[in-house]
Amino acid sequence: MPAAAKPLKIALICDWFSPRLGGIETQLADLARHLEKRGHTADVLTTTPGPDISDGVRVIRIDTPRLPFSDLSISPRLTQILTAELRRGGYDVAHAHFSVISPAALAGARAAVRLGIPVVLTFHSVLLRAVPALRFLDRITRWSRAPVLLTAVSQLVAGQVSRAAGGREVLVLPNGVEPELWSRAALPASNEPVVVSAMRLNLKKRPFSMLRAFAEAIAGGKPARLIIAGSGPQRHKMEAEAARLGLAGRVEFAGAIPHKDLAPLYRRADIFISSSNRESFCIAALEARCAGLAVAAMRPSGSCDFLTDGQTALLADDDAALTANLRRLIEDPVLRARLGTPDAGLARFAWPEIARAHEAMYGRAAALLSAAGQARSASGPGQTGGSPA
């Protein structure tokens, strides 16, 4: 039941949404549904083409020119268009969801600031080399001084955003999961462990490092299988690399699997592997942990917010360590069982808790905007803060 005193009308603004498949898209749809369960109204505003209703979520599709293959808008009128949509919708809060390059989210945040709507910005991606660029942009536009609440999906990303924003506080607003969807009964130790991974097959995820780690981990004829769920531009090259590594019959490319259909795959698996060292959160690893899988992953990742080396996962600093960790998990069923033990701490990522955290952030954003307005009134005309670049 709703916990907030006043139902809110919330604009969730993001460049990407269903029918595209990805972590941001899935999280945004789940967020909208869980906010609705708590008595709010949540609309998704996006430049991704598609239907007006997607799995029960209301979607306002912004029709603008887009870059091929990315759906990123290149319209110079994007802020103007989103200003009109936000005004027409009468929203109480605007929640903009950023990756590294997100013109629609940026334009939506700018439009909301101009309309006097409380704004929460959530950064979903590892920034890396974008930090200096954002810091330089801040000197010109003073975006970090805008009366908006800055958040990120993990401690890793929050630290990067804070550095880009001149040390400004950035709060963590993590992704959510439905633990009951992923839970399973304990399985007997398997003579042929099943390793799974779920990812978009692009170079950023380092899928070839994963294939090589698996090939080296089972060298000598160790029994194990690898199932890779996901699609992307590297699919055919990965199939060729698997054949070159002698993994025919040991690796299955399952293709894109709808999010709700991943749970049965995880229930018959033993180990989850992530080779990406640029994960801002890694919702797939969190879901794997909720399913009771032992996890092999890279240490410089946002998943360290819920993975503990030696207790719930084996974390690696490089590819050699990733291979060694995967080999240990394949060879040692006792270790797999220990690392796969249910973790009560994961309850904090359950959607009811995450939805309440969002409500709290929306309240803080409104208080921040109110305080900024009072400060401007006290300082007199001509004193204005920054706005998102």
Spell out the key features of this protein:
389 residues; alpha/beta; Rossmann fold; 8-stranded mixed sheet; 39% helix
In short:
The protein is an alpha/beta fold. It is built from 13 helices and 14 strands. Helix 4 packs across helix 5.
How would you name the oligomeric state of the polypeptide chains in this document?
A: single chain
Q: If you average the pLDDT, what whole number results?
A: 92
CATH class category label of the largest domain:
Alpha Beta
Helical content stands at 25-40%
CATH topology of the largest domain: Rossmann fold
Would you tell me the structural class of the helices and strands? alpha/beta
Question: How would a textbook summarize the main sheet?
Answer: 8 strands, mixed
Number of strands: 14
Strand content of the residues, in percent? Answer: 15-25%
Low-pLDDT runs: none
Give the number of domains. Answer: 2
**Strand order in the sheet with the most strands:** 3-4-2-1-5-6-7-8
Helix count from the secondary structure assignment: 13
**What coarse outline follows from CA principal-axis ratios?**
elongated
Outline the structure in words:
The protein is α/β, with parallel strands linked by helices and 389 residues long. The chain folds into 2 domains: 9-176 and 350-379, 3-Layer(aba) Sandwich (Rossmann fold); 179-346, 3-Layer(aba) Sandwich (Rossmann fold), CATH 3.40.50. The protein is built from 13 helices and 14 strands. The longest helix has 29 residues, at 351-379. The mean pLDDT is 92.
